[in-house]
Amino acid sequence: MKSEIRDLGLAPSGHQKIEWVRRNMPLLRMLEEEFRREQPFAGIRIALSIHLEAKTAYLCKVLAAGGAEMHITGSNPLSTQDDVAAALVEDGLEVHAWHGVTPEEYEVHIAHVLENNCQIIIDDGGDLVNMLHSRYPEKIPYVIGGCEETTTGIIRLQAMAKAGELKFPMVLVNDADCKHLFDNRYGTGQSVMDGINRTTNLIVAGKNVVVAGYGWCGKGVAMRAKGMGGRVIVTEVNPVRAIEAVMDGFDVMPMKEAAKVGDLFVTVTGCSGVIDEEDFAVMKNGAILCNAGHFDVEVDVACLERIALEKAEQRHNIMGYRLDGDRWVYVLAEGRLVNLAAGDGHPAEIMDMSFAIQALSAKYLVENKGTLGSVLISVPREVDQEVAARKLRFLGKEIDVLTEEQDRYLNSYSL
Ligand code: NAI
């Protein structure tokens, strides 16, 4: 099947972006060399649905170096970068994605990826796995297994598995320590603030920054917003997480209260309707709203579209909604993941770890073909430890090693 992208002529800029991240992703560079030598994916067709930018593109190239035939689509309409897509096509990979894809076009792109009877599925948010089960069940027998990148995708998978509907093994990449401890926390923390700053060109210091959700991502966003001088308020539904936020030094209150005082709002819950009509009604003039959760349902933008008296684009990726009198609220990047839709996503060094886990998990699936059952699988502990150990080496850090006596002590129960 022929690739479907915007413009092959954009490839030079895409190559440049991929080369920059390649230089800053030493784990993936090492895997690229190993895979090129060992060809673990020889004869394997891989389907990917991912935020198609330079770092994910490099992951695709690493898998291709290992012998895989790659079939790629995006995972969010605004996160695909057309120049990066063009570079991959020029390198001989098959891509069905463009920036600003409509929901209908996205479905066609997924269909064209799945037409290839892929054996490994690499998903980010669960769309590929969902479509395979609901629309293309005849393709399921080809599938060896898949890997899921993000929290929201895992929640969907858990629901499928619980209902007995999951038809092949899925590795929960997000649950690996080397993924969520770094990617969700430090990656989201930095890239969300970067997306907000480059889009608004406004100051964070002195603002009331409301972070909805104090999970791994929320912790990162709150930490970085505080570091920039913001006064952080956390909203939560989980009492344990709320206590963590209190003890980390943040104010905690319900969204209904936070809505009255917030200057900048970031939702990162994986839930829907986190900021809704009642909240919009009490917001200050000039409040800025954005989302970093996987789907664009956390800030109820559809409601704003319905109730606004006037709507006007203020700057690229900033839509203003006049709610009454001269009271405006502003939504960044249509309420889609602000770090990807209005930025370049996580830093390369962070995704180096996440994608090393992805690549090794895909290899694990191939090596264990037919033995795993239709279940959810944790990333093997050895893989997590190996990625961490290699990363430490690249960071030039050494750590202590247990002596035999210490090891015995830690493994004994008698005094
Ligand atoms: P998590 O499960 O660790 O944390 C989510 C938190 O939100 C939980 O503490 C939960 O109690 C809270 N929550 C749920 N509903 C809420 C509501 N209505 N109001 C307030 N709090 C609520 O999940 P994690 O890893 O932090 O991921 C959150 C979302 O971010 C997911 O959709 C995930 O897929 C996405 N994500 C986005 C990334 C990005 O680049 N923007 C990167 C990684 C994950």
Topology overview:
Layout: H1 11-23, H2 26-38, E1 45-50, H3 54-65, E2 69-74, H4 82-90, E3 94-96, H5 103-114, E4 120-123, H6 127-134, E5 145-148, H7 151-162, E6 170-172, H8 177-200, E7 208-212, H9 216-227, E8 231-235, H10 239-247, E9 251-252, H11 255-261, E10 264-267, H12 277-282, E11 287-291, H13 301-307, E12 310-315, E13 318-324, E14 327-332, H14 338-341, H15 348-367, E15 376-378, H16 381-394, H17 404-410
Parallel strand pairs: 1-2, 1-4, 2-3, 4-5, 5-6, 6-15, 7-8, 7-10, 8-9, 10-11, 11-14
Antiparallel strand pairs: 12-13, 13-14
Bound molecules: 1,4-dihydronicotinamide adenine dinucleotide.
1,4-dihydronicotinamide adenine dinucleotide binds next to helix 7, helix 8, helix 9 and helix 14.
